[in-house]
Every structure is written in C-alpha cells, then in structure tokens.
Amino acid sequence: MVLGIAGVGATTAAADTVIDTIPVGGGPSRVAITPDGSSAYVGNQLDDSVSVIDIATNTEITTVAVGDGPAGVAVTPDGTRVYVTNVGDDSVSVIDTGTNTVVGLPIPVGDNPREVAITPNGNFAYVTNFADDSVSVIDTGTNMVVSTITVGAFPLGVAITPNGNFAYVANSTDASVSVIDTGTNMVVDEVTVGAGPRVVAIAPNGKRAYVTNLFDASVSVIDTGTNTQVDTIPVGGAPTGVAVTPNGKRAYVTNNDDNTVSVIDTLRRTVIETIPVGGGPERVAITPNGTRAYVTNNFDDTVSVIAIDQCLGSLCIGFGSLVGGGSTGSGAGTGAGSVAGGGSLAGGGSAGSAAS
C-alpha cells in the first residue's frame, strides 16, 4: 500500500532483516553492547571465553579467557568495564574494555551465578545466584560483595530501572519477579508472572518491565508503578531473552525452540514480526542508536545481526516534509509536526513516542 501525505512518499514498513551472521565461541549465551555502540561482548559458556565483536565490521576481533562457564555479561555505563558471571566457579570476572583483558582476581559470589546488571551510576553490580536463591551486590569501586539478598526460587534475569531505584529479578521456578529496593537492598514486592520466567527488560522510560516466560510461550508486561502484571503477550516457543529499543516502541524476544525472534509493538502489545535467526537463540541486545539487534545463537555458535527498520508503526516516510513545514525525523516541525521524531502528525496526536 502507498499513501500520500502532502507530497511525501509513504509505504508500509519494511521488515527487519538479518544482515549478518558472526561466528563466535562455543555455546554463546548472553550479549551486551558498549554505551558508544562500538563493541558487543558475548559470553561463550562452552569454551570459557568472551568474544569481542567490532560492530562497525561485524567481526570477532578477539576473545578474552574468563572463568568456568561464562553466562551473564554487563557493561558499565562509562564503557570501561565488563562484568561476566562464571557459572561453574561461582565468580565474576571483570574485563577492561581498553585492553580486553581480565583485571584483578575473580570476585566470589553465590552458587551458580547467572545474570548481572549494573546500576545507572555504575556503582553496583547485581548478580543472580541460581542455586542459592539470592542476589549478590558488588561494589564496583572495590569489586567486593557488599550485600546478599534472598529472592525467589532459582533466580535468573535481573534488570535495573533507569532511575536506579529498583532491581527486578525473575524467579524461574515460582512464576514471580522479586522487586528489590536498591537503596536498602531489600525485597519490597513480588509480582506474579507466567510460567518459567527467564529474563527481564525495562522500558527506557521505566514504566514497564517485560518478562519472558519460558514454559507458556509468553511475555508478561509489568506496570512498575503498581508492580502488577497488566498484560500477557503470546510469542514463540520457549522465549528466553528480551530487549527494548531505545525509543521504547519495540521489544525483541528470542524464541529458543523456534529459532526466531518475535518483535513486539509495545504500544499495541502485540507481535508485529517474526524473524528467523540461528539455532537456539538465547539473548538479544540492541545498539544504543536502535538500528541493530544482536542475537546469540546457542546451538550453532553464532550471533545474528538484525537491521531494525526505522519506520513508525506501519508508516514509512519516504522523502520531503509534511504539511505546514514539519520535518521527518526531527521532532522540530511546525504546523504539522514530524513523524518518528517525537512531534505530532498534522497537528494532532503524537507520532513519535510510544507509551511502552
């Protein structure tokens, strides 16, 4: 379908596309991208290493030897350090991104550490310990554990709100998410979600948390203001990872059984695309500019690179400007405003900011 808006070419949105497949180490699991968007770090569980991918060329430029069975990977907000959980030896390794070498000794944490998230100020790392139902809190200044928090059964995913006030932890065998007050390091709430919750991602505006539920092929949507589940979105088989785009309009979900990624429109809370990727997709991370998604494929030792189409919903602006002088993509138009830049369309409702 082709639509016309005051001389502007408009078409239905192009589909997201896998544009590259990158060989990495054995059993790639988690992936994290540096704040400047230059590098992706991938934990390879089967060969005790972290692959470093140059995003400009989509090539593995080096590997870093870490502990036994690296799983969770998180980059500090200043981009200087990567924290890696080592499942097999109950520790966390710290990588200097300037030299891509491990610095200091491994940090002892709880039993079977899985995921790690770092506070927005970079001061603390929260590590889920799968086998002892706890979260270790690491002071990143000293790289020592300063608190251990009891949560639900077999915790996996952890995510921290953009304001740094709360950490959300997925408890994989009791269908719940624990909410931790990071000021007191105490659990202040528990939210019931679907069966087998795995990973949590929080929208950039902090208003919603998205939780993958492995056993019922769904994503739970949590209102973080009330800490209640407000919706459940069906996705593919055995969803594991989830990431939200920087503009909050889409969530990307890896479906481990289907070898696909589901793309959720966060405003409509429905799947709008399903993208075939590699074997056993585990996790997904999105570049800071929102143009690429990196998916770890656990079964075939690769990372799929998805080009994210930049259209707004089903409408793509092809060229030119809107009625009244509004520009496409700038958010600074007059009269008609702009599309995909946060302004309003034809003087009406907002076309640039989805309530995710």
UniProtKB/TrEMBL annotation:
Name the record gives this protein: YncE family protein
Species this protein is from: Rhodococcus xishaensis
Lineage: Bacteria, Bacillati, Actinomycetota, Actinomycetes, Mycobacteriales
